[in-house]
Amino acid sequence: MTDFPKNGPSPISAFDRIGEENAFAVLARAGALASQGRDIINLGIGQPDFPTPPHIVEAAVKALRDGQHGYTPAVGIPQLREAVAVDLSKRHSTSVDSETVMIMPGGKVTMFAAILMFGEPGADILYPDPGFPIYRSMIEFTGATPVAIPIRESNEFAFSADETLALITPNTRLIIINSPANPCGGVTPKSEIDALVKGLESHPHVAIMSDEIYDHMTYDGAEHVSLLNYPEIRDRLILLNGWSKTYAMTGWRLGYSVWPPTYFEAVRKLAVNCWSCVNAPAQFAALEALTGPQDAIQTMMSAFDERRQVVVRRLNDIPGISCVTPKGAFYAFPNIEKTGWQSKPLATALLEQAGIATIGGPDFGIHGEGYIRISYANSLDNIEKALDRITTFLASQG
Ligand code: PLP
User: Fold this and answer.
1) 190 CA distance to ligand 1 centroid (A)?
2) Residue 109 CA to ligand 1 centre (angstroms)
3) Residue 12 and residue 285: Cα distance in Å, rounded?
4) 168: which of 13, 53, 284, 377 is 20 to 30 A away, CA to CA?
5) Could you give the percent of the chain with pLDDT greater than 70?
6) Ligand 1 site, residue 178, Cβ cutoff 6 A
């Protein structure tokens, strides 16, 4: 809920319903505590702790020096749209037409556009819970009804096709799925995605938004299966992806989506009405990211993998905590029920008393109670130190 002054102009009620991402509030609080001299370790934030690879930074600098200072086409520069199409066609068993690729100012903006396109009072939109909090926030903003797809620890935090399909009604307009997933680190296996797509054939009125922003981030041989691989749903599939996680570019505000041709014109017009185009030098950096050397991804993923194993081992050593080994992204989602704490009070106590920023599971939906999210986008040293402090803190609580 937003508090507007009682005697001022009143915004439409949708603005009473807009939510947010508590990770940003935790980041601000962690920063405030650090500026008071507290030693804070941030395991709350969802961004790689690596810098953007230098050749990508240089491409942006060069673009600025070369005079790329103006508007670009609203849909993105043609060479970048083409590079996205080539990259996707190469990595998946499909061909993507660059005319269906939209360059966006961040991954989030695709969910904004897709949810605005299908959400209105009377419409149901299915979304993963626990899941990225902006899905639900935007669904509520449009007046549509959010319908949670439970993401269960007993299913290693993959979504269940049967459970998802059972939630579809004639009012369902859009299904949002996310694998590899935030906040649980689950990767849904191909068999389950096959079953979902098969079931969707009986529901041709339902659009699908597949958030694949963590597509490069899998471990232990887990396979990311893109929804692009299924020609039978391509005419109603919106693919969300971007550069933020894979290339450590969260602050550049870059993303892309692939749209069915019939919806593309609507999203192009939304861009013209709202953001005009994506920052021009950032688009040249994105082009270099896709077409230049890719070894930085492997280096980052090896570091994440090592940390993942430490985090899971150390969490499972703490009495009262158990942690499924995440197969994707850079988050662990330990079960903390047996500590006797509720999730949000524990996350607050860990930050205020032990100096460790984490996010309470309910910030990702009602099915997040009993868990906290730990991002291992931090150095191994800091992770070990943080786990020492969490262990000591919980032991001191008796
Ligand atoms: N989708 C998921 C599942 C995410 O976790 C995030 C960011 O944390 C985004 C989308 C948004 O990415 P961006 O920072 O590019 O807007």
Assistant:
1) 22
2) 9
3) 38
4) 13
5) 99
6) yes
Q: Is the CB of 331 under 6 A from ligand 1?
A: no
Q: Where are the domains of the chain?
A: 13-51+296-396, 70-291
User: DSSP letters along 62-75, please?
Assistant: HHHHTT--S---TT
Query: 13-51+296-396: which CATH number, 3.40.50.1100, 3.40.50.2000, 3.40.30.10, 3.90.1150.10?
Result: 3.90.1150.10
Mutate to test the pocket of ligand 1, among 157, 176, 188, 213 (most ligand atoms within 8 A of CB): 213
Given pLDDT bands bounded at 50, 70 and 90, which one contains residue 49?
Answer: very high
Pocket of ligand 1 contains residue 132 by CB under 6 Å: yes
Ligand 1 atom nearest to 111, measured from its CA: 10
Kindly write down the DSSP assignment for every residue of 200-246, as one continuous string.
Answer: HTT-TT-EEEEE-TTTT-B-TT-----GGG-GGGGGGEEEEEESTTT
**Cα 318 to averaged position of ligand 1 atoms, centre (Å):** 30
Phi, psi angles (nearest 5°) of residue 267? -75, -30
Asked if the domains at 13-51+296-396 and 70-291 fall in one CATH topology, the answer is no
Instruction: Tell me the pLDDT tens digit for each residue of 216-256.
Output: 999 999 999 999 999 999 999 999 999 999 999 999 999 99
Spelled out in words, what is the top-level CATH class assigned to the domain 70-291?
Answer: alpha beta
The answer to whether the CB of 211 is under 6 A from ligand 1 is: yes
- Which has the closest alpha carbon to 215: 205, 229, 203? 229
